[in-house]
Each structure stands twice: as C-alpha cells, then as structure tokens.
C-alpha cells in the first residue's frame, strides 16, 4: 500500500472539509491570538486547505437563500428532529435475560441508559428500531445479495456503492449485504475501520459477533480477535442496543430492547459473550495503529508524531528545541512519506529544516526582521 | 499597507459573506479558481513570522489577498471589471452585483444546496434552517431543541460539512 488509495483520499478530503467549516464558524467570534496563529498555520499547511476554505465561504454565502426555500415551520422541524432517534440492538437469542450492571434513571431527554447486558455469543440477528416507521419487519424485501470480502495477506480498502469506505487489515473478513431498507455488514474476523457513507433512509448496521452497532455518519473501528471484540469510535456516534429474543432464523430482525451504550468520538468499549465493558476513552492512535497507509493524529505533539514517522524511515526526524517538540498539531499523512510531514513542518512559523545525510533536523529558526507584507 | 489592512478588516467584518461570494463568483467566470488558490497559497507561505504575528484577522487577510489577485489578474487581461486600484471600489460593487450570468449560477447553486439540506439528519436540518432561514441564535435554537448551545454549533458544523462534501461531488 504505497499509494494513496481512494479511501485515504476521500477520508482526507472529508477531514479537510470539516476543518474548513470549523474554522469558518469559529470566525463568528473574534479569534484569540493562539487561534489566529493556528488558523494561519492551517491555511499554510496545504493549498487544499485554502481551496476548501474558499469553497466553504462561498457555500455559506448561499445558505440563507437555500434555507429560505424551505417551507416547514420551525415547530414542525423541531418535532421531526425529536422523533429521530436512531438505535442499535444487542441481540439475544438465548433465554437468558440481560444482567443489568449499571442502571441510571432516564432523564427528560432521550439520553440512553447505560445498561450492560449479557449477550449471547452466536446470535446473528440484529435490529433497527428507529422511529422511521415506514420500515417495519413485515415490509422487508427479499434477501439481499451477500458480498464477501477477505483481505488475505495485504490490507485492503473498499469503497461501497453508498459511499461507505472500509479499510480491512490483513487476514480480515467481512460480509456486506445491502437492500432497500438496510445496509448490513458483518465483521467475521480481524480489524476493520468504517467510514460510513450517509444514507438516512437505509441505516447502517454492523454486526460483530453477538453485537450490533449502528451509526450515523461516523468513523469507527472494530477489532475481532481471540481477546474479544473491541469497538472504537473515531468520530461521530455509535449506539448499541439490547434486543429481545429473536423468533426464528438468524436473518430475521428481533424486537427492540434497551439501549446498552452510546459511544462518541474517542471512546471505546469491549464486547464479549458475557456482556460489555464500561465505555472508556480510547487511545485512537493505538486503536488505528494497524492502518497501514497513513499516520493520523489529533492534537499530538510534534515530538510524538515524529517518533511515529521514524518507525518507517532510515533517515529519522530529529526535533530540536522544546518549543517545537511540544507544539501540538493535527493531521493525516501517508506513513511512507515523511517528506510530506517535513514539508508541513517547514511551513510552521519559526521552524527551519536541516537535511543531514543520516537524519533530518527540525530546529527553531531565528526570526528575521522584515517589513514585507505581501498584499 | 498595514493601515489599509486594518480598514479593510473592519469593512470586511461587515461584508464578510457578500465579499467572499462576490470574488468567488468573479473568479469562477474570469479566472481558473485553482490558479487563484495556488497563488494565494504561495503568498501565505511567504509571510514572514514577524509579520504573521501582526495579522489581526487571518481570514480578512486571506480574502484580501485573493481579492487583490483577482483584480491584478483582471487588469492583466484588460478586463478591468473593477475599473480602479482602490479596494474600496470592490466593496461598492459588492452592494450592487451586476453579473447576470453569475446570478443565474447562484440560483441553481442555491437550489442544489436546498436539496442537500433535505438529505441531512432531521436534527441537523432543523438547526440549519432555523439558523439561516429564521435567523435564530444558537441559544434560541438550543432552547427549542432542548439541547446545549454547544450541540447547536456542532450540528451547524456537521450540516455545513455534509452539504459541502456533496456540493464538491458536483464540481
């Protein structure tokens, strides 16, 4: 995987869009000095950032006009939003009832309750119990075609028809079945990272052993190995629900049960036959360390990022100067292309790059007095 | 130059949305947008650290650089849509945009955008429409939706990002 894949490109584009929108919205309030510097750094990191920022600005200029074409009164919009509550099931095909570990009174809002449940191992059934009433169990269409993907000895990127991007680690297998009402994926084994395409009419359900995950516009990672199953949410939100007994074959949808866990970006949960662990913060870098093609980091010190690159190169990066080393940055780079990272570093203010034969040194530059304002 | 920049910043703060769409429209029709981006980017890279610290609003700076480049380019090609060297004149033109072609373009863009808004989740959609159509503040929306103002902001960002990603597919 020495070339950028579609997966990487699409994911990177999505990230840049999100960053551009974030910066655009931040400007509604005056930026702090630090934010200003960070924004400038971001712009200077790539022409793609500049292009995307312009594009966001342009689109934003059309937002009022576009939104004004909508007729629905605000009250109706609010009501529809309230009814929209996507859910995921934990299936139970055995008689055993879930064993509650934590219980927490429901608050006025529809916040989930944390209710750990004992989930049976082999259960394959899954259920979507959102309030999109038009999809009832009876209305399910005929069997969808099952596509089987196995990565073998090389990691693999898949782009599905709905825009979902999947990264499979080596020795990983998944089944994909899409029909008119659901997008369903089963992780058989290995590591898989999902960047889920948006399709509000067809929820995405991901089956992991006896557990089912449902998400909306999310990036998350699933690991299945001897130690059990682990779910890590990189961005967005994933909800997990308990399901009632499934009546018949594994392919039927059981009735809705109780919400078990709700994970947001940066959270992780262990799933196994005996239940689920409490939700806890994830080491995202660690969880996605198997991703072969890129190095991605959020608010990480330059020193640490450099260390990660150094695992891939024979001319290591050496960060000199505490101020640079401790500066925190976010981004995505191809793991096999530390040059791109060096180029990025060289655009930061007060940074100078010195290329020696056996290493690349990143040092503090002496600020030069100049009057040039390139306007 | 810096004084001018300060004036421009103040002006810019008022006219932000109009301004950006103004020059982007001009760019779309008169110059390859990619060239502009490349050129803007190079200028950003050339800012010296000492100067960078003095930029009060990097965003205003960004758009100013872009607006100037559009202008220079127009002069080079003798199209002279702005007719003068004064930046202030750019702003005057902002108030009365005359490019019919560009206006039609923006209408179809807005309809496309409106269609994309419908594809958002009901929550995102509600937040965006209330904010942009009804001009409700984050706080007002938060009260109506029984969510925090922070969540309102998140929905705005998420909704805009989703729309923008899909708009990019048209380009």
TrEMBL record, chain A:
Signal peptide: none annotated. Pfam families: DUF4880, FecR. Transmembrane segments: none annotated. This is DUF4880 domain-containing protein. GO terms for molecular function: sigma factor antagonist activity. InterPro entries: FecR (IPR006860), FecR_N (IPR032623), Ferrdict_sens_TM (IPR012373). Coiled coil: none annotated. Residues 152-239 form the FecR protein domain. Residues 18-58 form the FecR N-terminal domain.
TrEMBL record, chain B:
SUPFAM superfamilies: Sigma2 domain of RNA polymerase sigma factors, Sigma3 and sigma4 domains of RNA polymerase sigma factors. GO terms for biological process: DNA-templated transcription initiation. Residues 111-163 form the RNA polymerase sigma factor 70 region 4 type domain. Residues 16-73 form the RNA polymerase sigma-70 region domain. It holds the Pfam family Sigma70_r2. Coiled coil: none annotated. Keywords: Sigma factor, Transcription, Transcription regulation. InterPro entries: RNA_pol_sigma-70-like, RNA_pol_sigma-70_dom, RNA_pol_sigma70_r2, RNA_pol_sigma70_r4_t2, RNA_pol_sigma_r2, RNA_pol_sigma_r3/r4-like, WH-like_DNA-bd_sf. GO terms for molecular function: DNA binding; sigma factor activity. CDD domains: Sigma70_r4. Belongs to the sigma-70 factor family. ECF subfamily. This is RNA polymerase sigma factor.
């Amino acid at each position: 995987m020495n070339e950028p894949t579609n997966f990487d490109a699409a994911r990177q584009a999505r990230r840049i869009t999100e960053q551009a929108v974030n910066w655009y919205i931040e400007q509604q309030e005056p930026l702090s000095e630090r934010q200003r510097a960070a924004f400038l750094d971001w712009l200077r990191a790539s022409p793609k950032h500049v292009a995307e920022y312009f594009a966001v600005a342009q689109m934003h200029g059309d937002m009022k006009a576009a939104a004004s074409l909508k007729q629905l009164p605000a009250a109706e919009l609010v009501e529809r939003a309230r009814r929209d509550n996507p859910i995921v099931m934990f299936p139970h095909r055995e008689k055993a009832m879930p064993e509650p570990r934590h219980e927490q009174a429901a608050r006025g809002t529809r916040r989930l309750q944390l209710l750990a449940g004992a989930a049976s191992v082999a259960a394959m059934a899954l259920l979507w119990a959102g309030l999109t009433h038009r999809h009832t169990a009876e209305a399910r269409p005929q069997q969808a075609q099952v596509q089987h993907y196995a990565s073998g000895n090389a990691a693999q990127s898949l782009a599905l028809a709905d825009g979902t991007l999947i990264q499979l680690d080596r020795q990983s297998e998944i089944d994909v079945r899409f029909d008119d009402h659901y997008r369903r994926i089963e992780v058989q084994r290995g590591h898989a990272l999902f960047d889920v395409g948006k399709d509000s009419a067809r929820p995405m359900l991901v089956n992991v052993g006896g557990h089912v995950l449902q998400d909306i516009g999310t990036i998350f990672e699933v690991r299945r190995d001897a130690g059990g199953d682990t779910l890590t949410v990189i961005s967005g939100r994933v909800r997990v629900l308990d399901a009632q007994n499934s009546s018949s074959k594994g392919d039927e949808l059981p009735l809705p049960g109780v919400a078990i866990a709700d994970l947001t970006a940066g959270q992780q949960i262990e799933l196994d036959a005996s239940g689920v662990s409490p939700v806890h913060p994830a080491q995202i870098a660690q969880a996605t360390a198997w991703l072969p093609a890129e190095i991605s980091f959020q608010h990480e010190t330059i020193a640490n990022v450099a260390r990660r690159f150094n695992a891939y190169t024979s001319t290591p990066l050496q960060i000199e100067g505490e101020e640079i080393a401790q500066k925190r940055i976010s981004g995505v780079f191809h793991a096999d292309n530390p040059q791109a990272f060096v180029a990025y570093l060289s655009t930061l203010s007060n940074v100078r790059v010195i290329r020696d034969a056996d290493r690349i040194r990143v040092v503090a530059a002496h600020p030069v007095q100049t009057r040039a304002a390139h306007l | 130059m810096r004084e001018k920049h300060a004036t421009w910043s103040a002006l810019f703060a008022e006219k932000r949305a109009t301004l950006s769409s103004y020059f982007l429209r001009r760019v779309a029709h008169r110059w390859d947008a990619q060239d502009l981006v490349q050129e803007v980017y190079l200028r950003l890279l050339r800012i010296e650290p000492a100067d960078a610290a003095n930029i009060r609003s990097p965003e205003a700076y960004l758009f100013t650089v872009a607006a100037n480049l559009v202008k220079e380019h127009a002069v080079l090609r003798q199209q002279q849509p702005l007719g003068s060297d004064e930046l202030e004149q750019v702003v005057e033109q902002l108030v009365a945009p005359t490019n019919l072609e560009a206006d039609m373009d923006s209408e179809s863009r807005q309809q496309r955008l409106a269609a994309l808004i419908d594809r958002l989740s009901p929550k995102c959609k509600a937040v965006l429409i209330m904010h942009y159509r009804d001009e409700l503040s984050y706080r007002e929306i938060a009260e109506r939706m029984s969510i925090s103002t922070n969540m309102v902001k998140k929905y705005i960002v998420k909704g805009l990002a989703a729309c923008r990603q899909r708009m990019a597919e048209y380009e």
